[in-house]
Amino acid sequence: MLNTLSVRNIVLIDQLDLAFETGLTVLTGETGAGKSILLDALTLALGGRGDAALVRKGADSGQVVAVLALAENHPARVLLRENEIADDAEIILRRVQHADGRTRAFINDQPVSAGLLKSVGALLVEIHGQHDDRALIDAATHRLLLDSFGGYESELDAVANAYAKLTAAQKAVDVQRARVEQAAREEDYARHVVEELSALKPEAGEEEGLSERRQWLMGLEKAAGEVNDADEILNGTNAPGPTLAMLLRRLTRKSDAEAALFASMAEAVDQALVALDTASEALEAIRREMAFDPRELEQVEERLFGLRAAARKHQVECDELADVLARYQADIEALESGAETLAALEVELTVADSEYRKAAGVLSKVREKAAGALSKAVEAELPDLKLGAARFIVDRQVEAERVSAHGFDQIAFHVQTNPGTSPGPMMKVASGGELSRFLLALKVVLADKGSVPVLIFDEIDTGVGGAVADAIGKRLARLAQSVQVVTVTHAPQVAARAGTHLLIEKQAIEEGAFMRTHVRPLDPDTRSEEVARMLAGATITDEARAAARRLMREVGV
C-alpha cells in the first residue's frame, strides 16, 4: 500500500506530507484547489515524464517521495533484486525535477534510470481517469488480465515450456543448416587445407623446439669456421710444428761443448712442440664434439619456415595450426554427415512444433471460455453504472500460424455502448465518462486477480447523476476491500463511503503572496460539512447538512 507521499516545491505545493490508510481514501476540494497537481506529483514519482513547469516558481528544483509497503513476494521486489537495488522493508520512490528540465530518479536512495523507476511504479500503482491511457487502455495488458482472470496457470506453463523447446529445436536446425551450407560453399578450399596441413602434420610446441635447435646448429656452424682457422694455424702449410722440430734436431746434434750452451733453448723448443701437440689434440677433440650434419640445419629451417608460412597464411600462431586442421576436418565431416544430422534435427523440430500447437490449442480453448465468463462478469456491473445497454466484449483473434510464448490468441477489450452501433476498442468507442465506468467495472471484477496494490481514480464520477455516482461509490468501496483505493471525486455519494477523507484547499501563504495547496484530513464533523458542501455548492444550508448526515448514515459511516 501507499504509506506516505511527500511533495516539495511542485507547482502550488511548497511542502506537503500525506499519510494514507488502507481501504478507500477520497480527495475532495473546490475546482482549482490542486487535486490534479497532487496526482501529477505522484505520477512524477512513479516514473512519469518530467517537466520543468512542475517546479514551483522561484525554486531551483522540486521533489516527490512515495513510500510503499509491499508483500515479500511482490513482483516489484523481484524486479529490484534483479537490478541490484536494495530490497528494504519499505520501497521508497524519489524523483527530483530541476527547473532546467533535468530529472533524477532514486529507489531506496539508489540512483536509477527513469525507465526503471517507471517499470517499478507500474507494478505498484495504477492511475485511472476519464482520458487516461496508462493502465487498462493498453491492449498489450489485456491478455495478461484475461489469463489472470481465467486462472489456467498449468495451460500457460505448458505453452511456455513447449515454446521454449520449439525455439531451441528451431535454433538447432538453423545452426546445423548454416554449418552445412557454409561447409558446402568452402568444400574445395577445406579439402585443400586439410591435405596441406595433414602433410605438414603440425604439433603444438613444435615451433619453439625447432627454433631452439636452429639457433644451436647455427652456433655450431659459426664455430666450425673458428675450428678450421685454428687447424690451419696449427697444422697448415705455415704451421710452426715442422720448423720447431727441425730446430730441435739441429740443437740436439751440437757437440758436447755447444750442447751445454744450447740446452735450455732445446728444452724450451721441445716444450713448445709438446704444447703444439696438446693444442692439436684439443682441437681434434673439439672437432669430434661439434660434429654435425650440415643437412640437419637445412631440414630444421625448412620445417620451421614451412610451419611459419602456414601460420601466416591462416593468420594464427604456429601452435594453433593443429586446431585449424581439426576445424577444417570437422567442416568436411559436417558436409559428409551434416545432411543426416540436419534431417534428424528437423524431425525433432516437427515433433516440437506439434507439441507446441497442441498445447497452444488447449490454451486457446480455455481462453475462449474465460473470455465469455469475463464479459458476463463485467456486463453484470454495467446496469448500475448507467451502462445497461452496453456490452463488454473480449475480442479474441486466433492466429493458428502465430508462434509465441503465449499461444495463438491476440486479446483486446472492446465495448459496444449502444445497440446497433459497432463495437470497437474501449479508447475509441467509449466517451470519457463511459470509459471510466467500464474500467471501474473491469477493475471490480479483477480485484482479486493480481491487481497492483494501489489504484487511483481521478474524477471518474464526473458528469453522472446521483444513482450512478452511488453505484460508483459502492464499487470503489468493494474494490477497496481487496486493494488500496484513492479517488479524486466531486460526488458526495462517493465521498460518503470513504474510510479516509482528505480535503484539498488553496491557501495564501501571506497577504498578497503566492498561493499554495494544502491538504488536511477530515474528522467526522468536518467531513459531514464537506459532504454538505458537495451537495449544496457554495452556500451550505441546514438542509444540505441534514442530507449529508443522512447520506453518511445510509452508507454506514
Indicate the overall shape: elongated
- The portion of residues assigned to helices is 55-70%
Protein structure class:
alpha/beta
State the strand order across the main sheet: 2-1-4-5-6-7
Number of strands: 15
* Number of helices, counting only DSSP H or I runs of 4 residues or more: 17
Distance between the termini: 23 Å
Q: Quote the average pLDDT.
A: 85
**Uncertain parts:** none
Strand content: 15-25%
* Major sheet size, sense and barrel closure: 6 strands, antiparallel
Rg (CA only): 47 Å
Layout of helices and strands:
Layout: E1 2-10, E2 13-19, E3 24-28, H1 35-45, E4 61-69, H2 75-82, E5 90-98, E6 103-107, E7 110-112, H3 114-124, E8 125-129, H4 142-150, H5 153-185, H6 187-200, H7 206-235, H8 240-252, H9 256-289, H10 294-314, H11 321-381, E9 391-398, E10 409-416, E11 424-425, H12 426-429, H13 432-445, E12 454-458, H14 466-479, E13 484-488, H15 492-495, E14 500-508, E15 515-521, H16 524-536, H17 542-554
Parallel strand pairs: 3-13, 3-14, 8-12, 12-13
Antiparallel strand pairs: 1-2, 1-4, 4-5, 5-6, 6-7, 9-10, 10-11, 14-15
Question: Can you characterise this structure?
Answer:
Strands 2-1-4-5-6-7 form a 6-stranded antiparallel beta sheet, with helices on one face. Strands 8-12-13-3-14-15 form a 6-stranded mixed beta sheet, with helices on both faces. The protein has helices at about 35-45, 75-80, 115-125, 140-150, 155-185, 185-200, 205-235, 240-250, 255-290, 295-315, 320-380, 425-430, 430-445, 465-480, 490-495, 525-535, 540-555, and strands at about 1-10, 15-20, 25-30, 60-70, 90-100, 105, 110, 125-130, 390-400, 410-415, 425, 455-460, 485-490, 500-510, 515-520. Helix 7 (about 205-235) runs antiparallel to helix 10 and helix 13 (about 430-445) packs parallel to helix 14 (about 465-480). The longest helix is centred in the middle third of the chain and has 61 residues, at about 320-380. The chain is built from 17 helices and 15 strands. The two termini are about 25 Å apart. It is elongated. By secondary structure, it is of the alpha/beta class.
